Amino acid sequence: MSRIDGRAPEQLRPVSLARGWSKHAEGSVLVAFGDTRVLCTASFTEGVPRWRKGSGEGWVTAEYSMLPRATNTRGDRESVRGRIGGRTHEISRLIGRSLRAVIDYKALGENTIVLDCDVLQADGGTRTAAITGAYVALADAVSWAQGRKLIKAGRRPLTDTVSAVSVGIVGGAPLLDLCYEEDVRADTDMNVVCTGDGRFVEVQGTAEAEPFDRKELNALLDLAVAGCGDLAAAQRAALEATAD
Amino acid sequence: MSRIDGRAPEQLRPVSLARGWSKHAEGSVLVAFGDTRVLCTASFTEGVPRWRKGSGEGWVTAEYSMLPRATNTRGDRESVRGRIGGRTHEISRLIGRSLRAVIDYKALGENTIVLDCDVLQADGGTRTAAITGAYVALADAVSWAQGRKLIKAGRRPLTDTVSAVSVGIVGGAPLLDLCYEEDVRADTDMNVVCTGDGRFVEVQGTAEAEPFDRKELNALLDLAVAGCGDLAAAQRAALEATAD
Amino acid sequence: MSRIDGRAPEQLRPVSLARGWSKHAEGSVLVAFGDTRVLCTASFTEGVPRWRKGSGEGWVTAEYSMLPRATNTRGDRESVRGRIGGRTHEISRLIGRSLRAVIDYKALGENTIVLDCDVLQADGGTRTAAITGAYVALADAVSWAQGRKLIKAGRRPLTDTVSAVSVGIVGGAPLLDLCYEEDVRADTDMNVVCTGDGRFVEVQGTAEAEPFDRKELNALLDLAVAGCGDLAAAQRAALEATAD
Amino acid sequence: MSRIDGRAPEQLRPVSLARGWSKHAEGSVLVAFGDTRVLCTASFTEGVPRWRKGSGEGWVTAEYSMLPRATNTRGDRESVRGRIGGRTHEISRLIGRSLRAVIDYKALGENTIVLDCDVLQADGGTRTAAITGAYVALADAVSWAQGRKLIKAGRRPLTDTVSAVSVGIVGGAPLLDLCYEEDVRADTDMNVVCTGDGRFVEVQGTAEAEPFDRKELNALLDLAVAGCGDLAAAQRAALEATAD
Amino acid sequence: MSRIDGRAPEQLRPVSLARGWSKHAEGSVLVAFGDTRVLCTASFTEGVPRWRKGSGEGWVTAEYSMLPRATNTRGDRESVRGRIGGRTHEISRLIGRSLRAVIDYKALGENTIVLDCDVLQADGGTRTAAITGAYVALADAVSWAQGRKLIKAGRRPLTDTVSAVSVGIVGGAPLLDLCYEEDVRADTDMNVVCTGDGRFVEVQGTAEAEPFDRKELNALLDLAVAGCGDLAAAQRAALEATAD
Amino acid sequence: MSRIDGRAPEQLRPVSLARGWSKHAEGSVLVAFGDTRVLCTASFTEGVPRWRKGSGEGWVTAEYSMLPRATNTRGDRESVRGRIGGRTHEISRLIGRSLRAVIDYKALGENTIVLDCDVLQADGGTRTAAITGAYVALADAVSWAQGRKLIKAGRRPLTDTVSAVSVGIVGGAPLLDLCYEEDVRADTDMNVVCTGDGRFVEVQGTAEAEPFDRKELNALLDLAVAGCGDLAAAQRAALEATAD
């Protein structure tokens, strides 16, 4: 079976990680997974929230949002509705947890980094693109702080890389990195977050139509681990290049 | 290794499913997983939300909440804060998806069932207890509606049972059905929702401390599938008894 | 005239005050006035709100809420609507004032007790059951604090007991402790809060249909004072028993 | 004992009811009880809320609010805080109930009257001044509608007058119509709403310090009934004069 | 062309500035521009917002609001809607900026003055009446503080007077101080705020229908500057009179 | 005097108008005024808001927002705060009015176009860049609708072009198109919106420090009119090019 955009089942969409997109943020990346584009900025500030003061440890958090016309049909702004929806909350929490999994709070010291992931254009996989891009922005913000001695010399706040990808069963076939059209037709949809060494940070699988069995789950996990490996390579390549 | 409450690693806490707890609701269950107690009510109403009118299909949704002093330290009410937190949103959505996985909307007809899961006392596993109890309340509401001919004769809106359990790795050991003290010490925490035939509806695993590998994931899934089987048996037993 | 449930006009519904219902709260009571069931928890914390710091005096406050399916028809959650309704506000304020009427702030010291009264099932008289049950939870929380020396030895923060009951004129007859069906048919509805010595803390009478005259008011007050006396006896009996 | 402003215990403050204060409203009164000044407007609209359509019956409701500097210390605006406080809710509900007590919904027909009571300057008794003034504005709005044949000929939507006054025990003495300084020193504070024929619509007594006994309650009720009688006379006098 | 109320094009409506309207506020003015009536109160408090502490400088801010029935049709309260509308925000900000233009923060010292402008009756020009009246209330609050030595002797916190007026092109003719009926028919609507020396603090011109050209703009500015001059004279006259 | 970035006083920053930036929107432009970058999307939908139904006329509205890290210091999200700030409201309203000034509602027919202007990076002049870019997105959405016959043949909904620019007095000199550093140092700040024929849609001048006189106002208007002319040329050039 050939995919809607001609990819092989285990193939990612074209990935780009454009560093230094914003002149203000300490780290910023415009990440693209095919037509999905997310602007990820990392804001570094000295100090931590009150509940963490005096601990010697830092904090990392994330906020996800979507521009109203990032999607095919315009959605209402959450600021206009006056409340953040459940989906937004859920994804913001997932991004935050994923990035904290590779943070050594002691090494970060009493500093805070906020990751803002704003979806400029959506075509499936916005949360996985956000995590993958946010990691690069986070790494740049850490470098920025190290350059200004805001992090102690010799400390390495990042313990590994982290990336994420979606997988799903569409028309009976396990596929990697679903675009929107595949996503809406998927029986099962799974988001997997892995560290650079191939271990799991998050596994979130949902039966959209039929429940799935252990064999299907295993096939999806195989695809996802390989995909996260490819994304980790893309992250390393981006970080080795010179930011413009 | 012995557990804090003396259970074997693969052992559930004592489970009870007290049907007919509320005189007003069409279905109601006070579910207990050890000291975790959740009041689940199912409210049946004829008609569906506007976006579903004329489809001939029903709708099922859920809301989860916690009383302020269900936990060891009193939490602020979300009604007083004026907004629902991300965790509440996330769990409400999980419960709704889990129950919809066993609903045949056509058989339900244009009727709506709302599941309210209010945690009266929390000791870990509130969301899995809520799903397990809500299924029983849902089944009772369906029977109630069948008794009143609000669902067409011969239609079976429930395609299977559904239950849920938490698993986690604590001190290196995979454990079933974590109580609160185990939960806070877990390196990895996973919630698994299964249908009665042993397939997956949701798999949500999170590395709280160290990332987890494939072998650990497999051990957790084995535990969870067995635990959900035990819970399905408890659900069947409760439904075969006569509600008071 | 016989009442809908066979009671005499001056007769309370069966009252129960189950102490120690919650394992977390410093005081907790599941109170029932017939089919009305309210879970009352008392949360004791050291310290007082900012405006009271340094005064040497404590504080007591209350929050009332109703589960969505406590009533015959499901109500929207106030947390979902994003605002607390006027009725909820009004009852929370009434409960707080009623309990503060028997508190000696100096004797309590700079400690705060929050009473949460959550209606699990409603059948009329939820506010009066809440006050009556909350008093017992409050007394248990005070004892708990005395046992831990959080209140100075010899201090008695409670100056008296406090209980509450509804009365009303239904079909021309003054009745004590209205159930829901009586309440909706009442011409006049009154809630009365009394201390153990029979004095008034609150008198709130409302003409639902016809205005009422002085004679009717007097008949209602007579009923209410007697009913509060019976409730005070039930409170004393519950507190003399050993909490489970 | 002489009162702070030299009044006798059973004496009202100077009362004025200035009709026609607003050029836009169908009825409007600037009511003063001493230094307490409340602008009451009655807005008449054809039609009723959805839940009342087709009933042939009208609806009357009220909203109370206070300007930020109506009081000695500036209060935050509820619009700025984004939520209405419990006190505001409670008073709005009281005013609405009080005026509905003298409305014949059938005679009003399917029309709605909204009473807005905005406190321009507060010196105690704002809710009782609001009820007393709102009645006159309501009467003017009814006349306006009768003049335009929006209410059927021969129908009398008002069944009686309604007025309200505060009473309290200050320094052991029962006093009528408390000003702010008396109010803060009162042991017991009661608001009483009476129809023109001297019957009760609302009786709301609260022990601010010491509980009160039956004898004190009776003394307060005597004072209040007489005071409401004086206010009813003032209302009639105002309505007999020609509105400017 | 004669205007709807018989005025000449360059003529203000009757202006009144009644000082001392409120007994609580440090400065208060009931300002009328024809049938537009705005109650302006100035609340003086020692101290400044946190972000300004230690600067030695004061702060002045403003809030604008409209009573629900100030207009011909009743509007919903912003407190009931739970959010402040864009128009209210915009006008509050304009009033604050306008008054700060004549404040010497150093001379004011670390004190805060809040101007509340509540529209009691609206007939066009509510924001310009509010600015003009608020200046007088502000001046009174400054005098009050000087009288109590809360402002250092010899300091003059007010550097000039400030007033405002609306102008517009109606039926091709430039007109001063539009009433509501003129305002709705205007092609161009402009609000101009001037200091007493005739310079501009704000110029806000909007093409409601046709864009306007430079010549029309100049004609409107000529009218506005003259009108502000007349208002400045009225402000001086009011402040020279003895407040009641 | 030379400007911070070397421009002449009457010189715009480099302007770019990248059409077709979004694959979903009916019109989309990434506009840059120097380092200020705003993503403008135009969403075309058939139908109009309820209050306009049956009029045969269309509607155009706008929403402005800023990403949290568009600025040098991260700002809180308005969706997280739960309310839209006054500045956001004010700018959204300005953009909407400006674009409606060149719309022929009859020619548009009963269709709605929503302009979303999201500031990705801010360096002064975000509202003027938004208006200038939104016009181009609007023109593309109109062409899109004409191509699909959603607008009747021969109808021209756009009556002219519209563009906007900021001007200000910095260090005594009138300057065109202020960047952020100039903006914070400006004594007077003015935003001017012009149609393609050089007439005014909006003139909003504010004295940030010293009030300004007529001569300064005239100098600013001269600069702004010329600047808007240059922007109108850039808009025409962009629209004549083929969108990618």
Automatic annotation (TrEMBL), chains A, B, C, D, E, F:
Is Zinc there in the keyword field? Answer: no
Question: Boundaries of each Exoribonuclease phosphorolytic domain copy?
Answer: 11-141, 160-226
Q: Which domain of life is it from?
A: Bacteria
Residues noted as binding phosphate in the record, renumbered to the chain: R87, G125, T126, R127
- Which CDD domains is this protein grouped with? RNase_PH_bact
The family note in this entry says:
Belongs to the RNase PH family.
The residue stretches assigned to a coiled coil in this entry are none
Question: HAMAP family of this UniProt entry?
Answer: RNase_PH (MF_00564)
Q: What is its EC number?
A: 2.7.7.56
Q: Report the Gene3D superfamilies cross-referenced here.
A: GHMP Kinase, N-terminal domain (3.30.230.70)
Per its database record, what is this protein's job?
Phosphorolytic 3'-5' exoribonuclease that plays an important role in tRNA 3'-end maturation. Removes nucleotide residues following the 3'-CCA terminus of tRNAs; can also add nucleotides to the ends of RNA molecules by using nucleoside diphosphates as substrates, but this may not be physiologically important. Probably plays a role in initiation of 16S rRNA degradation (leading to ribosome degradation) during starvation.
Any GO BP: rRNA catabolic process
| GO terms for MF | 3'-5'-RNA exonuclease activity; tRNA binding; tRNA nucleotidyltransferase activity
Which protein, by its recorded name, is this? Ribonuclease PH
Pfam families (alphabetical): RNase_PH, RNase_PH_C
By which gene is this protein encoded? rph
Enumerate the InterPro entries for this protein: ExoRNase_PH_dom1 (IPR001247), ExoRNase_PH_dom2 (IPR015847), ExoRNase_PH_dom2_sf (IPR036345), PNPase/RNase_PH_dom_sf (IPR027408), Ribosomal_Su5_D2-typ_SF (IPR020568), RNase_PH (IPR050080), RNase_PH_bac-type (IPR002381), RNase_PH_CS (IPR018336)
Question: Which NCBIfam families is this protein grouped with?
Answer: RNasePH (TIGR01966)
PROSITE patterns the UniProt entry points to: RIBONUCLEASE_PH
Its subunit composition reads: Homohexameric ring arranged as a trimer of dimers.
Q: Reaction(s) catalyzed by this protein?
A: tRNA(n+1) + phosphate = tRNA(n) + a ribonucleoside 5'-diphosphate
